[in-house]
Amino acid sequence: MPTTPSSTVLTSRIQQLSSDRQKHLDAVAAIDQTLMQIGKLLGTTVPATAAPSAPAKKAAPAVQKESKRRIFATTGAESVVEFVKKTGGATTKEIQKNWNSQGRGGTADNSLSQLFKAKKLKRTPLKDQPGSRYTLV
């Protein structure tokens, strides 16, 4: 599973990129200035490159949304067992859809793994597609 960098790493990287961008803009401005001076010495007009854009603004620090832990009437595992019981068997995709419809965050994968290891659910891999079909033991 891919990991996401922390907000401090992202903030640091954004600041570094902004700094690099400013250095490049300064270098382009210096090149343009040199070309204009050469043009004046030769008595010709040297076509200007793209006008340098406004100086880079400092990036606002990334604001990380604080997540709140939600409380449900049933645990995640109970919810999965109840859904599998009601449907007579369900695929990973169907269980995940039900999980999200309840407003639960993340995925149902941890609950599915725990229930499978506890031998409360039987897992049968699906053929020709990712996922499994889960039934009660």
Strand content: 5-15%
**Helix and strand succession?**
HHEHHEE
Structural shape: elongated
Cα distance spanning the termini? 29 Å
Helical percent range? Answer: 40-55%
Number of strands: 3
Architecture blueprint of SSEs:
Blueprint lengths: L6 H36 L33 H12 L2 E2 H10 L7 H9 L3 E5 L6 E5 L1
Antiparallel strand pairs: 1-3, 2-3
Structure notes:
The protein is mainly α. The chain has 2 domains: 1-63; 76-136, Arc Repressor Mutant, subunit A, CATH 1.10.10.10. It contains 4 helices and 3 strands. The protein has helices at 7-42, 76-87, 92-101, 109-117, and strands at 90-91, 121-125, 132-136. It has a 3-stranded antiparallel sheet with strand order 1-3-2. Strand 2 and strand 3 form a beta hairpin. The longest helix has 36 residues, at 7-42. The protein is elongated and about 90 Å long. The mean pLDDT is 84.
Which terms summarize this structure?
2 domains; Arc Repressor Mutant, subunit A; mainly alpha; single chain; 49% helix; 137 residues; 3-stranded antiparallel sheet
Short recap of the structure:
The protein is mainly alpha-helical and 137 residues long. It has helices at residues 7-42, 76-87, 92-101, 109-117; strands at 90-91, 121-125, 132-136.
